[in-house]
What we know:
TATA-Binding Protein, three-stranded antiparallel sheet, about 25% strand, elongated
Amino acid sequence: MRSKIKVIVRIKTNYPKIFYRSTQPENKFAPKIIRIEHEIVDRELVFKVSSDSLNEKNIWTIRNTVDDYIFSIKLVDRVLRLWGIKI
């Protein structure tokens, strides 16, 4: 039996396009063992990371990818607040 893993991060915002463009992942540099989907659904950013095989390396890679994405979101949020844009 093959195990799969999928992590979905949803973030509601009044400025989804700004966050989307600022945090667009570089899929061409992503490891081949994971798939990344990044989209806007209504006023919500949806970030999905998945892998078809569940092992220690894949879990570590997915964890780091999600961590980097959340860090990027927080960075964009700080910049917008510095510019006086209410989130």
